[in-house]
Amino acid sequence: MAWWAWLLIQSVVWCCAGVLAVLWWLWVTKPHVDIPGPPTLPIIGNALDFLEHPVTLHKIRDFHRQYGDLMRFYAGPKLVIMVAHPDDVQHILVTSKLVERDPMSTSAMRTFIGDGLLTLNGSRWKTHRKLINPTFHSELLGNFLEAFHEGGLYFSERLASDSAGGAAPADVHTAAFFGAMRSFCSAAVGADPDRLIPDIPEHEVSTSLRHVLAVVQTMMLRPWWRSLSLLRLTSEGRAILKYYGHLRKGVEEAIALRSAATEEGPAKTRRRLLETLVKPGGQTTLPVSEVRDELMTMTMTATDTTAVCMSFALALLALHPEWQDAARRELKDVFGEGGDYLRAPSLAELASLRILESIIKETLRLFPVVPMLSRVVGEEIWLSKGQVPVPKGAILFVTPFLTHRLPQFFPDPLKFDPSRFLEGRSGEEHPCSYLPFGLGSRNCVGSQYARLEVKVFLATVLRRFRFLPHSRWEDLENATLTITIHTVKPIEVYCVPLQESGL
Ligand code: HEM
Asked: 212-232 pLDDT, tens per residue?
């Protein structure tokens, strides 16, 4: 053998041995905790348990049945703990005030949306949050109503055209997503939706969105996939990048339009999101790249989340006609049965829709849109009522999709029963057993906006259609674990126009 070949082989062998030695050292010095979890393999930890792709909620539920409310996993040497019991949820999100999200999830999301509220930590997160909080303040909700009404009408038209008079099942998420996108453009950006919404077919956008969420999951579990160059190699990846290109263009156009304004406009005590971030003339309150990233973040979070919630709500109402009838009776009580039954709702009318509100709450209990909230442990904390120490550096996943189904807090947990929220919560009360919008200082910045938008959209379509089931309970349960819950098959319902259904 030539001397250089021998040298090359020796170098490769020693490099591999070096890498293995480091991995082995990381593995043997990994933190230990006294928490049950599946058996591990040296160096890779529990990687084999998450080989199946996509990872479904079923999988985590099986682990929960086996190991209980506190479960430990190892992502290589990294300690990951899933938390379901509300006592621990309270300790993590409220008492210990942990606010940092883990780099595993944030760096995957950062690939697409850059540096915004979802992905930032530390002082930059604080600065963004302080700026954005007031733009979704409850006092502003009245200003958003018209935008929600228009988005709701668009949602309704889309359902009508997709369902061909009730003959074909309609994909709820796509219709709701575009309605929500239109509302967001008007309410938060203050721009004509037709100018900003990507000029590509709606089904392409929603397919891309679905792929994005799948890709984010892949990137979280397989960090070597976190490269846009690799993404470009697949047709799915190219479709995602095309969609992102359009979205980014829309956001940049909104910034340019706002920058081109010469004056602030009528004085307002509170401004819209874009007006807060960009001043007339183009001066920005954050570095320009962060303004763009924040608008991308807010557009993504404001549209997909509410569309997911509406999809599950309509599917559940189709499967539970007694609650659909109750909601419609309430709508008739509030809006009357005269010629203006279909009018835009006022804030006072919306506030009196208590049955509809309890339906939304129960939907979010069974299918919390954001299934897991991640936190990094900054300083050692103690869980399980102070019995289990968790070391600094561990990653915690708070799991509303498990917490919301604990029978001691929600008896008969799989039953869709909105009356739980009508009559106050049944079962043993716990302040942290229900957290669809998170808790503590890192909770959802758009929770009030979301609640109202979903109510307006559902009040709009429930006055126009009777919903019959196409997706079954099993289809709803067959969801994947990504940033937001997405069912493996799109959620579909039949939408029968009310005149034709005789109601
Ligand atoms: C039904 C709809 C929605 C649900 C269930 C929901 C739920 C959540 C949850 C659980 C979190 C994570 C909190 C945590 O990590 O502790 C969150 C964060 C966030 N949500 Fe929502 N959300 C919804 C709609 C919205 C809307 C409409 C917007 C924007 C207008 C929005 C913007 C955000 C942002 C920016 C964050 C990150 C906040 C931060 O880290 O400071 N969400 N949301």
From this structure: 776 776 777 666 666 777 778
